[in-house]
Amino acid sequence: MGKILLVNLTKKTIKYIDYPESFRDQYLGGRGFNSAILYQFRGVAPESPLSPDNVICVSSGPLAGTSWPSSGRTTVSVLKSPVTLGFADGNLGGHFGPAIRLAGTDSIVIIGRASSPVVLTIGFARPTAIVEIGDGLWETGTSIFNVVAKKLYGENAKVLSIGKAGANKVFCATVSCDLRVAGGGGTGAVFGSKNLKGIVVNYDPEVSAEVGKRFDSVAFNAVKKIKRHPVYDIFRKYGTTMLVALHVGLNYLPTKNWTQKTWDSWKLISGEHLLKKWIRDDPKYLSKLEQLEVDKELGCRNCPITCSNPKKVEYETLNNLGSKLGISDLDFILKLNTVYFNDPGLDVIQSTSIISALMEMWNDGVSNYAFGWGDKEHVRDFISDLANVSDENGTIGKYFVDGFLLGMSRAIKAKVLIFTSQRAISDYFVSVKNNAMSGVYPSHENKGVALAVATSSRGADHLRSLPTLSTYASWYIGKSGDSRWRKITSISSMPFSSLMMMRKDAKFILGKLYKTYNKTFGVPKPIAAQWEKSGFLTNEDQYVGWGSMIKYCQELYAVADALGICKFTTSWRFGLGPEDFARALSLLFRKPVSWKQVLEVGERIYTIERELCCTEKDGFVNDDLPKRFFVGEGSVDKKHFIKMLLDYYCECSYGIWGTPSMELRKRLNINFEDKFFSEIVDFLRD
Angle CA(264)–CA(441)–CA(613) in degrees, nearest 5? Predict the structure, then answer.
């Protein structure tokens, strides 16, 4: 089998261990490996996320380094997150995952704290080593450190590193490689607390894992399936920036700290406007883009879509720095993203959620700290002071180094902010399980999103189980029914730009909805048939049944992260489903694997993550939404939400408090009695 690299920074010791086939079969790799390994430390999690006893896991998936499409993703997990104060992880694309796998290891597990700044080097002519770096490199930005590391270790080296925010242990610091960021979870702060600047891995992009012609043939067919998808061309052209127009059309673009679902100035931050700007600024932009693709310097490893752009601007960039803060200046957003977020290594979602909360407080007249919607210069200065933990720019950014609630407490105690509302301070920070909200607006029309976000195993997170499949049901007109004309009217009233982004999806609003789920989105026939029989997707007033869709999405996306592939290629959008993955794994593992076994792996991963995020003191999982989503027109009805939640618990075999049952653990064969696990714990904690 493969190898796991164990690193104790305090003792400067390194050890490679082999993992058993049973571990691979049960957890695949990537996020699955990370969550299973971190589970071994559940009862001994440190008091502080910045303790030397905190554990970091960095893992690739079994498809990394093969010919499988979009197989370049890496999961970075921590036992105790500075953001959630519990288990959390981040995921990044690019080439780092394939690099560590081709260098001979599938996972890196790190504990301890180095006495001075270090990097971990892997896969070079010399043995794996913990290498001290000068203090001058410790607080450098990710871009400069990347250049220096490549000069020291070669141009092909892949460098996963922190910037100044990580060095300063800012709660929402990130780690990144080639401008691809593992956001969320504050993993960069944990790196910083260990004096670990980064991990440098030798990489030859021309080398691939030997998997055989039959596997390559299956991978080739998977690529063809992706390219046949109706939205392939649009997604390839705009990437995730197309979602601004799409979300406006569907009336769920988070705006002004989630107080609105759309924004009058949205066109100024749209993907279409962004592309026009780049072409206007550089008439040769498109030809340069094509050359970057040819040189394999743009997309992730083996990605046929290449949704990225040279500036690494995504939907979340435009939403969080744009509509959420009331900023429509695209040039400002682009500079802010590069200089004040990517380079110092600061999470966009978490930090802008603090800012938008302060803006809403000022707008509501309950805070004396003047911070209005669209105040660009103040946003820039606040972010700079947060990353540098300073008051050089005269803002209160430094008080929030450990998060929103502690920041508010410190600012109030220091008398730099007065809060006068009867509402709880926490109401302004829009989060689930301490993790700031992202992605899509939960509402009555978007009830599946409400359930998905509330039950996420790492806090508010659309990437855990966003049911994009439900969107097609909300558009679906069908042949008859009372809602037919209302839906036609709703679709025809959307902004023209939104309709143009959605035009390739038009084929899904007529015909056979559940057949489309199977043929175009890779949902196995029995599961699609179950949804059809339940009828929840086409009945706005039905709440029982949603649990089965969220469960499917959670399991499928967990498998995607475990395999090390992009979620966009799955049922999320481009339709590679459990049956496709079963064919690939059967050839890779050289034994039969069924699609049911594939989803069972996802179920197993999610089950242990539910236990990891269970409040040990209270013995329950806090699956809830911020109060604002339960009030106002078009909001989620609390009673109906509870009905959906209980249906979900029933589908997943969870108890009334959201915790996995003993019967479920037994069915999934969740036990960690293999000596392999004790070997990991003994080495790291010895």
Answer: 150
Q: What are residue 603's phi and psi, to 5 degrees? A: -65, -40
At 483 the pLDDT is 53
Would strands 13-18 and 74-78 be described as parallel, antiparallel, or unpaired?
unpaired
* DSSP string covering 110-134: EES--SS-EEEEESSSSPPEEEE--
pLDDT at position 407 = 98
Is residue 629 within 8 A of residue 442, CB to CB? The reply is yes
480 and 469 inside one domain: yes
Cβ within 8 Å of residue 347, ≥6 positions away:
172, 173, 174, 181, 183, 184, 186, 341
Residues forming beta bridges with residue 459, ordered by sequence position: 457
Q: What is the pTM of this model?
A: 0.95
pLDDT interval class at 673 (50, 70, 90): confident
Which pLDDT band, with edges at 50, 70 and 90, does 482 fall under?
very low
Q: What is the pLDDT of residue 682?
A: 92
- Same domain for 445 and 391, yes or no, is no
At 200-217, the pLDDT tens digits run: 999 887 778 888 999 999
Same domain, 88 and 153: yes
pLDDT band of residue 189 (cuts 50, 70, 90) is: very high
Alpha carbons 633 and 125: distance in angstroms, whole number:
63
The CA R_g of the chain, rounded to the nearest whole Å, is 24
What is the domain-level CATH number for residue 397? Answer: 1.10.569.10
Domain with residue 50: its CATH number is: 3.60.9.10
Token pair of 415, please?
Answer: 């008398």
Say how many domains are in the chain.
Answer: 3
Claim to verify: residue 389 and residue 450 sit in the same structural domain: no
Question: Within 10 Å of residue 112's Cβ, how many Cβ atoms?
Answer: 21
- The answer on 439 and 428 residing in a single domain is no
Q: How many Cα atoms sit within 13 Å of 556 on the Cβ side? A: 32
Domain range for 170: 3-201
Q: Are both 60 and 127 inside the same structural domain?
A: yes
Average pLDDT rounded to a whole number, residues 438-462: 92
The whole-chain average pLDDT of the chain stands at 92
Beta 88-92 vs 107-111: how paired, if at all? unpaired
